[in-house]
Amino acid sequence: MSKRIFVVDDEPKIGNLFSNVLEKDGYEVDAFVNPRSLVEALDEGSEEPDVVVADMIMPEMNGVELMETLQERGLDAPIIIMTAHSSVQTAVEAMRQGAFHYLEKPVNLEEMRALLEKAIELYGAQQELQQIKTEKQKQYPIEGILGESEPIVEARETIETLCGASNTTVLFTGETGTGKNLAAKTLHYNSPRADEEFTDIDCASLPDNLLEAELFGYEEGAFTDARDTKEGLIEVADGGTLFLDEIDSMSLALQAKLLSFLESREFRRLGGVEDKTADVRILCATNADLEQSVQEGSFRKDLFYRINVVNVQLPPLRLMGEDIIWIGRHIIAEFNEEFGNEVQGFTDAAKEKLFDHSWPGNVRELRNVLERAMIFVSGDRIDAEDLTLAPPRRLDGRETLGNEFQFPLDRTLQDVEKAYIRQTLEVRADDSYADIAEDLGISKKTLWDKRKRYNLDEVVER
Ligand SMILES: Nc1ncnc2c1ncn2[C@@H]1O[C@H](COP(=O)(O)OP(=O)(O)OP(=O)(O)O)[C@@H](O)[C@H]1O
Ligand SMILES: [Mg+2]
Predict the structure, then answer these.
(1) CA 389, 328, 173, 426 torsion: positive or negative?
(2) pLDDT tens-digit profile of 12-52?
């Protein structure tokens, strides 16, 4: 599409010159003899220009005043001010106020062409970037965190509140697939940092030394493979948000370094001597029980308190009641749009099946199950037989705990833990302690200690 240029000069011959020369170059040129008619053209719905060239001195309104008027109207196309050689100083002043550049009169055609090209190129790049950003922002609205049950509403409200604070560190906890990544992105894209980068790293995906280099960067020669100096993510994320996923996998040594950064906002690259600063909001996520890790000595207590300033708990789907259906309907609507289907929801039998499942993979699992169902559905509603649910991973009774293990909501976490451990020990009486401890995600010693603490010795004979 050809680019559009608005030229305004009270001397008609300037407008004519631009039109003659630039139309041959393939531009569309609208020439005006006074600023007011230019503004009127925009008011009347004229297509917006990609660049505006305005004379500095005109009756009624000078070039800078016109620029201000256009800026107020939200036109962000670059503006070039034309001026006589003797008043270049005012043109420089205009640039300080936001003009893209100035063009000296009499106009040199080559200079004019080069300047226009540059302005248009930069403006295009800017527009593109802006578009990507606003698309991202649209992609992660607060309401995109679905669910009407109490625990998810609470989580969403906390996230909404946290959007106002641009520095607060937040820890997202929840099982796999409960939306920790989604929540972190939503928080970033609705915070004052939304225009800056969201950078994330999975702390479990790299060995410790690489993770350290990735986070803090390094100087050339800091270690054998460090051939160049490299910025760490903390630097890359400057101004934006850095999301540390699976923070529980971080080694104690690296935890100490992270803590020191969080406290001082200063860090050094590996092999570096210079203290650097970065303005980064740190968000963390884990599906481990960090308090327990602290007790077991694998996570620093001081770091735990530092990152746990606010904790957003994302509930597992099996505790979200009717949300299984409600979120399911949303997902179906999304897929309808994507695949051009017109599925209306679920049959009663399908609903029952959805409620009976324990959803160890939470919303992610629900999405996958429904995506598959949408392909196989024959009627206008998804039926029980369209739903292929993963069988329990083990058939030793452990997996059924997820379904049977229901609790009134007025119990303490300790009550729940005690009952859960008791039931596990009872159901899996034939399994080794090492296996059970591993499946529970705790050490054998912790399992023994808990068995003692909860007086389960007599109850669970083995
Ligand atoms: N409450 C929710 N509303 C809408 N979509 C959700 C919700 N929770 C999770 N999802 C969707 O489920 C999928 C998994 O979510 P996400 O990756 O954020 O989970 P996670 O908690 O980070 O999991 P993991 O611990 O495995 O990394 C994504 O497609 C996400 O959009
Ligand atoms: Mg995740």
Answers:
(1) negative
(2) 999 999 999 999 999 999 999 999 999 999 999 999 999 99
Residue 397 predicted with pLDDT over 50: no
Fold match between 4-136 and 401-453? no
* Residue 408: predicted pLDDT: 58
For residues 460 and 462, what is the distance between their CA atoms, to the nearest angstrom? 6
- Please state the pTM of the whole predicted model: 0.65
The CATH number of 401-453 is: 1.10.10
| Atom 10, ligand 1: residue with shortest CA distance | 179
Q: What is the CATH number of domain 317-386?
A: 1.10.8.60
Domain ranges in the chain are 4-136, 142-313, 317-386, 401-453
DSSP class of residue 299? S
CA pair distance 203, 250, nearest whole angstrom: 6
Question: By mean pLDDT, which of 158-167, 175-184, 379-388, 450-459 is the weakest?
Answer: 450-459
The architecture of the domain spanning 4-136 is: 3-Layer(aba) Sandwich (3.40)
pLDDT band at 406 (very low <50, low <70, confident <90, very high): low
Q: How far apart are CA 206 and CA 279, in angstroms?
A: 24
Instruction: Give the homologous superfamily in CATH for domain 142-313.
Output: P-loop containing nucleotide triphosphate hydrolases (3.40.50.300)
Atom of ligand 1 nearest to the CA of 175: 25
Residue count of the chain? 462
Residues near ligand 1 with C-beta < 6 Å?
145-147, 152, 174, 176-182, 287, 327, 363-364, 367
